[in-house]
Write a structure and sequence with these properties.
The protein has 319 residues and is of the alpha+beta class. It contains 8 helices and 15 strands. Strands 7, 8, 9, 10, 11, 12, 13 and 14 form an 8-stranded mixed β-sheet that branches. A 7-stranded antiparallel β-sheet has the order 2-1-6-5-3-4-15.
Amino acid sequence: MSNLIDPHAKPLPSISAHHIDPHSYPDGVAFLDGQYLPMSQAKISVLDWGFLHSDATYDTVHVWDGRFFRLDLHVDRFFGGLEKLRMTVPFNRDGVAEILHNCVALSGHRAAYVEMLCTRGASPTFSRDPRDAINRFMAFAVPFGSVANAEQLQRGLHVAISDKVRIPPVSIDPTIKNYHWLDLVRGLYDAYDRGAETALLLDFNGNVAEGPGFNVFCVDDGKLSTPAVGVLPGITRRTVFDICAEAGLAVAAADVSVAALRRSDEVFITSTAGGIMPVTMIDGVPVADGKVGAITRRLMASYWQKHEDPAWCSPVRYP
């Protein structure tokens, strides 16, 4: 049997003094290790537990027309995740908010996707004990991106229901925003294979759970419901509850069966990346008459109107 590696075949390659990155990145500004950097220069170690083990928590907030939307709720959820994962960052809530503000202001973006995150970090000795890792905080601001594009927002998304089961709460607390996305990615490929644009996954009881980065709502006889178990309690999801309370619309978190979702009068999804987005097709079958529903349109309009309300927004101070 021949050796796989012949040490005499050719000399060892030289070690480069620094990494040359051939990839391209969106325009934006990142904060890392006390420095504000172009996105192309924001790097982490291959030994970071965030990369090796998806051991991280994060949160995203968006800026629209030069204003953060519900920034306080996002920062609060981020710190909640840190506490539950036994991580620490060298900043308080106001300090994190200031860093996010600086990333946006320095980028100049008036519409931005802004993320704060903390990884477990790396151990200087490559210890397998997570307590030896040095937690690492970073943040960035890039141009705003939506789950749904302009055409999909107008005519409604086409969604497929995957048979993949969302990671159950007994395994991963869904209130901690995390990067455990392999179940969601597998669901996406299920959807793409069936000609759909995005996916919904099931919970451990076979009911509808959530999709890749979004919650789902259905409307029946003017009443709204959204899955209660095994889902991230999204900030946009909460915003729907708040808007419904003001508008006198009934809304509840409850089990939503696949059959109930299919026969709904209206369906929409919610995410910081896109807001309230209509769904008009599920597994190739139209939702009701296949058009964006009246309540969905009403909520979409109210949602964007709230982006001008000082009680819900905080302006970016651009240079």
